[in-house]
Structures
1.
Amino acid sequence: MSDHGLSYRDAGVDIDAAQRAMEGIAGMLRATRTPGTLSDLGSFGGLFRVPEGFSSPVLVASTDGVGTKLKIAFLANRHDTIGEDLVNHCVNDILVQGAVPLFFLDYIGLGRLQPGVVESIVSGVARGCIANGCALLGGETAEMPDFYAAGEYDVAGTIVGIVNEGSILDGRAVRPGDAIIALGSDGLHTNGYSLARRIVFGELGLSVDDVFPEESGSVADVLLRRHRSYLRPIRPHLTEGVIHGLAHITGGGLVDNVPRILPPGTAARFDRKSWELPALFRVLQQAGRVEDLEMFRAFNMGIGMTVVVDAASADSLVREFTEAGENAWIAGEIVAGDQDVLFS
Amino acid sequence: MSDHGLSYRDAGVDIDAAQRAMEGIAGMLRATRTPGTLSDLGSFGGLFRVPEGFSSPVLVASTDGVGTKLKIAFLANRHDTIGEDLVNHCVNDILVQGAVPLFFLDYIGLGRLQPGVVESIVSGVARGCIANGCALLGGETAEMPDFYAAGEYDVAGTIVGIVNEGSILDGRAVRPGDAIIALGSDGLHTNGYSLARRIVFGELGLSVDDVFPEESGSVADVLLRRHRSYLRPIRPHLTEGVIHGLAHITGGGLVDNVPRILPPGTAARFDRKSWELPALFRVLQQAGRVEDLEMFRAFNMGIGMTVVVDAASADSLVREFTEAGENAWIAGEIVAGDQDVLFS
């Protein structure tokens, strides 16, 4: 290379470093292989055999990010958990349609390759994939100089799962009298971080290393709690017909997500006294002086998934979910109404 | 809402604006529907029926971004072409394994929702999907205050396609004596932009509205030329057995991409005199005083796809590609060697 000429590396892109990072994560990807996985790292695209045993197989796909929860990861310099957030969020998004995951692909955009950081991120993605029986089939790490701030990055992920056409859940079976089972969340999951950061770092003036008020653990510990996957407890019941609808409580909270599975003529009524608001949400609401409805739109308020079931099955399902390690309870019921969410 | 309390909107996130943008793009998504598409916008995940007629269906998936080509879109304030870049890049990435596209999902991360911009971006994605017969099944637009610079964003996309297991292309059929057909690129496609920007805006001191030296059109016109999809010309030949290997010339150029399909004991020799370097690359090389090998790693150098075929079929295929509107020529041959790329 000439002393005076420009190279790709001069422009901030280091293909060799990218190659090294890729080798570092190759082992992690291999650990996520499932029987359908046909390709190895380095293919242009990942190959996955359509599983047999589905009479009318339908693919269910979803793309999502982690949002500004990433800022907490940057501040705390902990990069190995957000990959799990990403995978679990996506797993839940297709689970609510009755699908089980097949494979996942991740995208990481960053300013300059810091090989340890990328490997940390991918280790979380791989851990999430393994826990959900999902192959990490590929991904892209894009080095974009002058694009992301130093030490910052964005991540997105895409999941593809499968369901038999006759087992697709879309809420059409939901009817008045059904019970709503809530499955507890672990912290904020991946929603409401812009507001939460403003309250925690602004109003409360805390740093990531401070103890979070009324919680056990630092601000980083509490705000980086992982988005929970509900695949394990729900999967055994997907084809039984007992589940009439599932809503994953993400951006928009209970208020915006539950109506997505309510047929015309129905509404969801939640009994606010059926659960105690986790300290985290009480602290945020008080410190930010946030209105109730705003809280229920910005945050999950302790509920990560709602399961609408036949009332007769509710108690036994709560018991099964509890035995499977979930914080589960009957949080409300389906009533006649206008496809909205009521609180009593 | 209380006068003093914080709302999600105060923290920079406007769920209603997101809702409006979503409605704006709903029509575009619908226009991309294909027979397999089962879901409409608003589902948690997109639904797509596995097509029939494949004895051993294998899904091929790939995730990619547009890289710092986005910076040109920002500077030129043109946001409706990069979606096509994104789709076409992904289409080519699975095409080289013999797969045809089924569906696509996009991710847009941005600082603050500018509804017109998001709709522009998605219009390009939708146009790319329609041109490739691919359903835009879903996506995510993530508003991330304090994350992306004002007016900037990142985009990534994931494609899922399908191929019969027996028709997977992986280069194992490539053998010495095969001809290498080159299909011409349209500009830089999506690679080498960090170096190109440094040369064009730094060394040459041009702005996006200046005329690009030796080219017809402005710097923006030339640098935003769309990544070309090679699906249409190649698709008719995918299952004929005449194509021994395909390499999509992306990051790493001919030097790094062609070896990905070379079996042990083979090498690819390109005849530099078989094509004239497009003016764009000559200008970049001269102004940046970039070494030859560096040019061939950073840029596609006028070749967007290489098609390795039986030598006996090469001439007729070149004719067919040409009739289909491609700039196609025999650019080299497979020789005995060490899985590398040679130039003569």
2.
Amino acid sequence: MSIGQSAARVDAYDKVTGAAQYTDDMCPANALRVKLVRSTIANGKVLSVDVSEAVRVPGVVKIVTCFDAPQRPFPTAGHPWSVEKAHQDIADRYLLARRVLVYGDEVAAVIAEDEVSAARAAKLVKVEYEEYPPLTDVQDALRPEATTLHDEYPGNVLAHTVMRFGEGFDRTVQGRDCEVVEGEYWTPTVQHCHIELPVSFAWMEKDRIHVVSSTQIPHILRRIVSQALGIPVGRVRIVKPYIGGGFGNKQDALVEPLAAWLTTCVGGRAVRIELTREETFCFTRVRHAIQFRLKTAVLSDGAFLARKAELWSNQGGYASHGHAICANAASGLRNMYPDRELSYESDAWSVYTNIATGGAMRAYGIPQQAFALECHVDDIALRMGMDPLELRKINCMKLGYTAAGTGIACHSTGLVECMERGRDFIGWDGKRKLYRDQTGPLRRGVGMAIFCYKTGVYPISLETASARMVLNQDGSAQVVMGATEIGQGADTVFCQMAGQTAGIRPEDIRVVSTQDTDTAPFDTGAYASRQTYVSGMALKKTAESFKARILAYASRLLGRPAAELDLIGSAVVEQSGGKTLLPLSELALEAFYSLKDSEHITAEESVHCKDNTFAFGACFAEVEVDIPVGKVRIIRIIDVLDSGKIINPATAAGQVHGGMSMSLGYALGEELRYDANARPLNGNFLDYKLPTSLDTPDLYAGFVETDDPTGPYGNKSLGENPAIPPAPAIRNAVLHATGVAFNRLPLNPQRLVEGFISAGLIKEARQEAIG
Amino acid sequence: MSIGQSAARVDAYDKVTGAAQYTDDMCPANALRVKLVRSTIANGKVLSVDVSEAVRVPGVVKIVTCFDAPQRPFPTAGHPWSVEKAHQDIADRYLLARRVLVYGDEVAAVIAEDEVSAARAAKLVKVEYEEYPPLTDVQDALRPEATTLHDEYPGNVLAHTVMRFGEGFDRTVQGRDCEVVEGEYWTPTVQHCHIELPVSFAWMEKDRIHVVSSTQIPHILRRIVSQALGIPVGRVRIVKPYIGGGFGNKQDALVEPLAAWLTTCVGGRAVRIELTREETFCFTRVRHAIQFRLKTAVLSDGAFLARKAELWSNQGGYASHGHAICANAASGLRNMYPDRELSYESDAWSVYTNIATGGAMRAYGIPQQAFALECHVDDIALRMGMDPLELRKINCMKLGYTAAGTGIACHSTGLVECMERGRDFIGWDGKRKLYRDQTGPLRRGVGMAIFCYKTGVYPISLETASARMVLNQDGSAQVVMGATEIGQGADTVFCQMAGQTAGIRPEDIRVVSTQDTDTAPFDTGAYASRQTYVSGMALKKTAESFKARILAYASRLLGRPAAELDLIGSAVVEQSGGKTLLPLSELALEAFYSLKDSEHITAEESVHCKDNTFAFGACFAEVEVDIPVGKVRIIRIIDVLDSGKIINPATAAGQVHGGMSMSLGYALGEELRYDANARPLNGNFLDYKLPTSLDTPDLYAGFVETDDPTGPYGNKSLGENPAIPPAPAIRNAVLHATGVAFNRLPLNPQRLVEGFISAGLIKEARQEAIG
């Protein structure tokens, strides 16, 4: 199926039948099992570890503690490395922690022949701590009396970035006739909840360490493991099989450096670490909770004149992706409504605390930013008495906009059309009126939100990718990517791209889904919705080279200039007229086995991408709010996206449905909560309210296809995007339905009921009954 | 270590410690087990198979019989495919046999959850046959009354080739004053006895079949499996891990097509087939027993005037490598002594019988040829009263010789020097005299033999290879070969070659030893001692491209023309003067991560080799024969080889030791024997007399290094060569010691005693005692 067609996923059959191989399927049966001994405090220092009783448990092979592990700090973020020190990720992790910063930090590791022995022994390891008061709240961590968590960051501020565009809020509004709207918005700590738990096994051959892992970033992980162990990159090999979801959590080095080190502790025997669901919730990465304070000056016609923002991001115990996420949120606040007159200033802080470390999670700061800003825009519309849709149309990013800090330009936009499609779908104009003056316990409303999202990480970071194609004897070809399938359907669209560009029937293209860093072309991996764009560029270039090499061989074989030939549908044809000259299968057989002129036809290309482009979208939701019980029912909801040209409408829609589902959870139920000791209260699927299929309404996906001039196939970012706007659209619909502005996610029953009581929609008696 | 140095084997550590992964190490624990139901007759037809009782055995998943299997004949030989029908291998194998041609042919396959259930059920499968008289002997198979084994080959002659060079024996000798010497020589059926048994497992993903196997020829196997199953090549993937020896047996499709088909019978579940040692002996491949009838006319000065040869090769039940081996022996008879005056004519027959199928085994017909011819040459020397060494010097191939049939030229030769080195080592001149007139039960003798051996298969067949190199962030590089390490040390010399040509420290070169046909460059595999030569050419070309790409990047980075730069010892240096400009590790880091100019540096090249060259060697042996007990003790033995430039003297010597050991077994003990029903009599390590280390004398290896102009590094064939001359050298030493010419291998005690009785060296009484 060529580009633009809904080709079936290339991995569908294997994933449905169970034939697809995941990390754990590949683990040798005799691999040693690891149980990690985790800290029982969230902030403190390990004084001693006593393993004397634990080592006596039969089956235990070795126990290593934080006092055995090298104290070489390493970074964990899935970013391309930088040769410039200033741009390198913060190295603040250790293989095992002597300084404990998160409840559950790894203090020791028990390696045993089986799970049971490992678990039994782990319970017998005795750890003595020196404890400091735990910090869960950003504002608490900023207080002068708070313990400094990292010596290099006194005051616990990992970073503070300042953006100033224009003359500044006060100077801009001075003397102008404008309304100033202020608001404060909070997003919660949430977890990715990928199906497959973090799992990894490692073994040694000679002086090399081999790691098989469920990761989004095999090539980056190779470098991180080498840094963590202090060995050259070439002595590490990473293999990435199919993975059962990542959503950014696996865009980080999780258990891999430890697995790699542990195999060196047992003579190179295979060592397997799999986290439990509870460990994954509590001790891997989370989406940063961010507190936003926004202030916007609006002219009477609705034009935004100036905006000021403050952001405080709860980083948790370690840097991971560092300040990048909070900074991305800050620049997103500017990019969405960058009217030329707008003055924009922001201060963004990432602050260390003792909760789980914030890292990448689907859309990298923008779900937080969009929640704050899109709530704020509806608050402005309410104050101004304007239609929120019209207000957005006036102020949103237009074609030709260039972001001042990054130089990223708006090369194409279908945003307004997205809004129009959403308006029609939801019946916006009618329902905005219809639901205006409701009474009673059940009230309906419609809300919307928009977003813009970049494509890849240029120019903040390196964008590079490569690909390889290999011809087989039957005229079929393998595509070997460094880019990774992580469930998003990358492999399928890569086959479509390669087939289309090379002129080979898509059914004859097979993608090698497992990345082995020894042989897979280099690519930084699956994040930033970059792969169809950046890796797509590399693949397009590769497919062009591949086709050129095939035609060069055809030229020799047929005795005609290559320029007269073309490859279409797996056949060499006359460029003018299209007459079929030779099936590719015959050419391939000849190229392999000719006694006169044999050649192994392959192609490999790398690209350094120096561009970026904005994708857009809008969500429209209609909700019914049950005021007394604080419940929101989604009646209808749609994400309409401008992701440029859609390579595969069916799998794109699948991505949208998944993203919307995540955002529904973000809107209505999910929040990882901590007690005063920074211990997670609900780190499991019983207590953490992830929506199930029964909680999920019908999800609608719409696409406004633009043809982006920078995308290899006119395409722009798509994977993360749909997870951005539903939460604010739902909040705005609740505002429309009830007149109550909820500024803190999630909109769960307790929060709603409290809000309705404050707003007088629920009477005191009811409050007492609940209280 | 660069070329010419004794670098340690790159796989030594892993093979010694057990870290190296072989096929069975990679087999999933839940793979289904297969037991093959084998025919209990050697010649006949399956009338019916009754599985009714067998399927009731608990644990049995499925039983398939020859009546279930597709009747699509396929070839099994590890030859490159030919696009010309006439050059394609004979397709006479079926996945399961209805027409039984070898005792033990696979008639049905039991697939079960475990070995025990499979074996129990296999015993309960009842097979009815129609039986025909079995044929074990070639001359019997040629009789008119013999059953025709393959309808396409009436009279059981697979092929008969005729060579005629010169005017013919009779015309040439007519009127010339010459001596005519005739002799008849027999070589036995022997088996490879590789340590690792044939093992393979297969599973399906989507519509593709994946096969992991202990094979020398992954890319060829991919094609064979596709032919056997009637599916496109692209739907088959072969993975070849480390293998525990092959020696040609694994240059054939053994269990792989069946494993591939069986997984399709159980819905794609993993299916594993491992043969037992007994199955391997009796039902895989063997070295052809060949009967030679030779006649040579010799002038009084010792010059060979004319030779006439007849060869009958026992092909066993199936074609496998077909007539190629016998034809190779026939052309070897000419090439070794191709004095310009020589008239040569030969008739060579490959004849189907009902014993195990003859296939490739180390040196492909030349051990047989060399035994016959080198015995014959000593017989001539004896008749002429000449020194066998001098006789060989007069007549052996000289520089500049071009073989008439193939056009293969003698580009370099150190043969005479090999003989001189052997003469010195063994003390030839003195001992030839010293041992002249011995009496008593213990007698000593010295003997010698020489050989020539081609390098690769050009122009008989396609010679093509390719390689890929991949730069890592630390300046190290992977070498990815299609060529296979099969224990011979290929990976080690590839690292030396790549390092030397690219200018990278050998310790920074890592070879990817596992070939995966999806990603490994195409190469036909390990056979014909071709890899250092043909694959070496591909690797050299690749390393040159790789270096050029590195220097091109260095040129951009340093702002200097690439022509002024060189890469030496993993550093970019000034070409003139050699000043170090940039370590490769720094360049690599920049190439990966530069925000200005990032590039993933790799290189891949394929070559079509259209050349071949002769390697040479000589073996000298001193033996002591215990006449009454018929025992030969090797006192000293040396192989002196001209294999061109030696890439790695230590591993080359290892190859020589191994080859000599195989030839000692060939000389003195090994023979796979059959009863009248064509059932193997000694197909196991108790009864088949493979020499152990205790049977093996000190083995000496010598090299006369020539610099072959066609070899990529001056090198020529080496792997198979040392296995050629020891057997005839020992026979000739026994002749020297005792005056008795043994013309049939092996020279085991029974044969020797019988010979000494015939020759009158042992008296009648003794004969009776033995009889």
